[in-house]
TrEMBL record:
Organism, scientific name: Myripristis murdjan
Keyword Protein transport included in the entry's annotation: yes
UniProt key word Cell membrane: no
One GO term describing the cellular component: nucleus
Swiss-Prot/TrEMBL GO biological process terms: heart contraction; protein import into nucleus; regulation of membrane depolarization
Entry similarity comment: Belongs to the MOG1 family.
TM stretches of this protein: none
GO terms assigned for molecular function: guanyl-nucleotide exchange factor activity; small GTPase binding; sodium channel regulator activity; transmembrane transporter binding
Gene3D superfamilies: Mog1/PsbP, alpha/beta/alpha sandwich
Protein name per the record: Ran guanine nucleotide release factor
Swiss-Prot/TrEMBL keywords: Guanine-nucleotide releasing factor, Protein transport, Transport
Length: 185
């Protein structure tokens, strides 16, 4: 079932067992955040300023490094990009985008400034909408190895729900639809 995003201005197919984090805590206006009810996975849909100085094929990497900076994962070896591939427009519902990309990479991040670091696979979906001065970035955080000292270790041990898959992520990307361009004001 498609899920309204940003008050229905966008919609997408959000995977099963997703909890809307805005019901639990304050989320910035430019973000929609979902967490898996049983695993430590999360999905973030965010509207970012279009980076006109960055070429389309480099934009996903630009945003990935930006996230690594926020995650304090910038030291050598703490983040790496495995692949960046273009998404063919024929497979997308978001016909307004100039180009779309999927980046897969890993970052070693700690939660809540803990010493313990978890290895997280990040799948980024990037839709470039220069006509609206917007980059739509969808991030799927998929923790791989959770340090036993991390506060997430308990949550990961009690996995009853099936975790999300890359297929779930691709379905979300392919189903993303714009209903109201006024969103980009």
């Amino acid at each position: 079932p498609t899920h309204p995003l940003f008050g229905g201005a966008l919609s997408a197919t959000i995977p099963h067992s997703a909890k809307d984090i805005s019901e639990l805590r304050e989320i910035p206006d430019n973000q929609e955040v979902f967490a898996h009810s049983h695993s430590d996975q999360s999905l973030i849909v965010e509207l970012l300023e279009f980076q006109s100085h960055v070429e389309d094929q480099d934009a996903a990497r630009y945003h990935f490094e930006d996230i690594a900076g926020s995650n304090k994962a910038l030291e050598p070896g703490a983040f790496q990009v495995a692949s960046v591939i273009p998404l063919p427009p024929s497979e997308l519902s978001l016909s307004q985008c100039r180009s779309a990309w999927i980046l897969t990479g890993t970052q070693c991040v700690s939660k809540f400034n803990e010493e313990a670091r978890n290895k997280v696979t990040l799948h980024l979906g990037l839709f470039r909408l220069p006509q609206y001065s917007t980059d739509v970035l969808i991030t799927f955080n998929d923790p791989q190895s959770i340090s036993p000292d991390s506060s997430s270790a308990a949550a990961a041990g009690a996995q009853s729900g099936e975790p999300w898959t890359v297929q779930d992520f691709h379905r979300l990307l392919q189903s993303l639809t714009l209903h109201n361009p006024g969103l980009f004001g």
